[in-house]
Amino acid sequence: MRSVQALAVAVLSVLALSNVSHAGEPKSGGILRIYHRDSPGSASIHEGATYSVNVPFMPIFSNLVIFDQHIAQNSVDTIRPELAESWAWSSDNKTLTFKLRKDVKWHDGKPFTSADVKCTFDMLMGKSQQKFRQNPRKAWYEQVNDVTTNGDYEASFNLKRPQPALLSLLASGYTPIYPCHVSPAEMRTKPIGTGPFKFVEFKANESIKLVKNPDYFKKGLPYLDGIEFTIIPNRSTAILGFVSGKFDMTFPTEVSIPLLKDVKSQDPKAVCVVEPNNVSTNIIVNSSAPPFDNIDIRRALALALDRKAFIQIMFEGQGDIGGTMEPAPAGLWAMPKEMLESIPGYGPDIEKNREEARKLMQKAGYGPDKHLQIKVSTRNIAVYRDPAIILIDQIKSIYIDAELDVVDTAQWFPKIARKDYSLGLNLTGNAVDDPDQSFYENYACGSERNYTNYCNKDIEKLFDQQSAETDINKRKKLVWEIDKKLQEDVARPIIFHARTGTCWQPYVKNVTVMSNSSYNGYRYEDVWLDK
Amino acid sequence: MFAYIVRRLFLMLVTLFGISVIIFVLLRIVPGNIVDILFDAAGFVDPADKANIERELGLSQPIVIQYLHWIGGLLHGDFGYSYVSEKPALEEILPRIPITARLAGLALLFSASIGIPLGVISAVHQGSRLDYALRVVSLSGLSLPSFWLGLLILMASVSMFGTMPIFNPNPTTWLEAFTIYAVPAAAVGFRSAALTMRITRSSMLEILRQDYIRTARAKGASEAAVNYHHALKNAVLPVITVIGIEAAFLIGGLIVTETVFNIPGIARFLVEALRWRDYPIVQNLVMLIAVVVVVVNFIVDMLYAAIDPRIRFGD
């Protein structure tokens, strides 16, 4: 009897397994329809600094290496070969050599070789005749001396000093390989890549269309016949389009928490995920002019923040508190909780923090009878304006009366660059969850995106030390120390790290939303439609 | 009449010249240019790169030279290149014109075909329940913002029919092709119809009190003949003026409707181009709209003479 039962269980198990296997068998065909939140300025990923470019154009390209598209948390361990078959560091960790695939063709039929790798990075480093119209990530390759080739299928990055993070930077969606034989201007309008999809057309303010690349070097992929992005800047229209079935997927990480509720109530079968997106909302402080040249006032400002209130109001509690690096568990480099809470302003007793802040303000000459009058400048975009208003409300408790100063997008960075502000509310997105990207970009002396001109030579030495450290545990401890110091210095007080939602219809398979970057997960080569 | 037309044509040219100067100067007074926007996306401004791009796009030249370059190009049929898409401006603008023209045309048709008859009915039945009901409808038409009405229509469509009439460049059925224009046209035309109705009503009320209307009735003309042949024909002049102004307004006024219904017409394109400070697109589009407005006004003036023979254009 027992053996009969066992046989029945075994048969049922096999049937069940075969059923699951059948249900999970990818199907080829179909067009994935996604709405796009705005009209990107160009199709050139290297010239863009917003994921509005990455999402529609990443499927056209290939990198040397890429973060695994189905592991939400990007890390060195999830890096996979793409145009490279393999890679190796030299014994002194100063040369990174890639062996390249030999079976890759550009979408126009020309063969891909190591010369294309060299061309791409020469342009990024500003060493070639051809120039990008803008080159926002030139600083990523600060430690690269040059890129050399050895035959058609080997390329090496020769570094000034060891930089283990380079591999992560190369695995970002921001680091596709461009063809030598196509000019940067053409890449802005009619990009040619080696990726799973070919560019068909980009009609500004209307649509972007991609079609399957039948000669893709990964045989059998992609499954989709194409991807169509309809540009719908109006968020309400876009969401209605999704729930009415006009789109298979929302624009990634673009559904706010309150909107997510609407989607689920109107389309209960929709699959929605909420993930951190490694974008911090922070305060930029002009410490080169009164009143914030006074460290006491800067510290008081940091002590006045009630971060939980921001998260509760804006995200119904679904946000994270942290330092510069994205908070755990999604973030790889986050300070331990105890360390974070030891930083002034991060402790749980908000009233106690504010009492301390008021004392600092009184020391600086302000009090109940003499309030400090300032303006909080920010961009005229909701995700900037809303936290700025909460900030203004919170700093009232420490004798600061602030007025909101909304700035047109075209004027935001020129205004910041000429230091024409006291306090600014800013958002900082990180393409790669690695301190090298974040620290050098936002806090290094002389960095273009170090808006506050914070410059601390001692910390800069620590930046270099962590950057060259190959032992990951030692590096982490250095990163925590740096992050803590940056918060204590009120270099750019971090208010919160946001979380956002992405939804798709249940028949869309194999979509993974990255949890520590919004820039890297859009190759879509094995996404398929179960229709 | 001939001298009047020549004079009007000359005035049209002067007006267009004035508009070209105003739009050109205003665009350059607005803070920031395309390069600032490009660098905004990058998160910083590199002064050397900024200067290079400005030189490449001709933005570093004196403003007078830039203006002459633009006008000279226009006169030779060269509309320049979009700074953003790097395609010829005309190539970007032309495909969008029929979309907006269709939408505006349908909205005007909706406005006239609903507004005029309801205005007449309201005037003829002045003080009745029907008149009050129609006046409430017209007031609500003037009060409801078209973006709000548009969103309500979209929400209702999704809720009731499980679909929504947003733009599709390749409609599969004639019904879809009609719906994607007719629904937004109705949303935007509702306000316009309300205005037309109110103007028609007040104009009709004035005409209906005239002696010749009483005479027509005394001579035994039917109510329909009095209302539609004698009264409406004379009451329609201010209505034509309003429809003319509405036609001009609609080109620019469609921005919100095009955004809500995601229609890739010229109104939305203009706003987007302005956001990017894409001067060639904005300048040429505004000039195009100005030409349309000036020409429509000219046609309205000519229609006055055709409809009311008492109007003579003085020499």
Automatic annotation (TrEMBL), chain A:
GO terms for cellular component: ATP-binding cassette (ABC) transporter complex; outer membrane-bounded periplasmic space. One of its GO terms (molecular function) is peptide transmembrane transporter activity. Belongs to the bacterial solute-binding protein 5 family. GO terms for biological process: peptide transport. Transmembrane segments: none annotated. This is Peptide ABC transporter substrate-binding protein. Keywords: Signal. Residues 1-23 form the signal peptide. The keyword Transit peptide does not apply. Gene3D superfamilies: Dipeptide-binding Protein, Domain 3, Periplasmic binding protein-like II. Residues 79-447 form the Solute-binding protein family domain. It is found in: Periplasm. Pfam families: SBP_bac_5 (PF00496). The keyword Aminoacyl-tRNA synthetase does not apply.
TrEMBL record, chain B:
CDD domains: TM_PBP2. Its main location: membrane. Residues 97-304 form the ABC transmembrane type-1 domain. One of its GO terms (cellular component) is plasma membrane. It is a multi-pass membrane protein. The chain crosses the membrane at residues 9-30, 103-124, 136-158, 178-199, 235-261, 281-307. GO terms for molecular function: dipeptide transmembrane transporter activity. Pfam families: BPD_transp_1, BPD_transp_1_N. PROSITE patterns: ABC_TM1 (PS50928). It is found in: Cell membrane. SUPFAM superfamilies: MetI-like (SSF161098). Keywords: Cell membrane, Membrane, Transmembrane, Transmembrane helix, Transport. Gene3D superfamilies: MetI-like. Belongs to the binding-protein-dependent transport system permease family. PANTHER family: DIPEPTIDE TRANSPORT SYSTEM PERMEASE PROTEIN DPPB-RELATED (PTHR43163). This is Peptide ABC transporter permease.
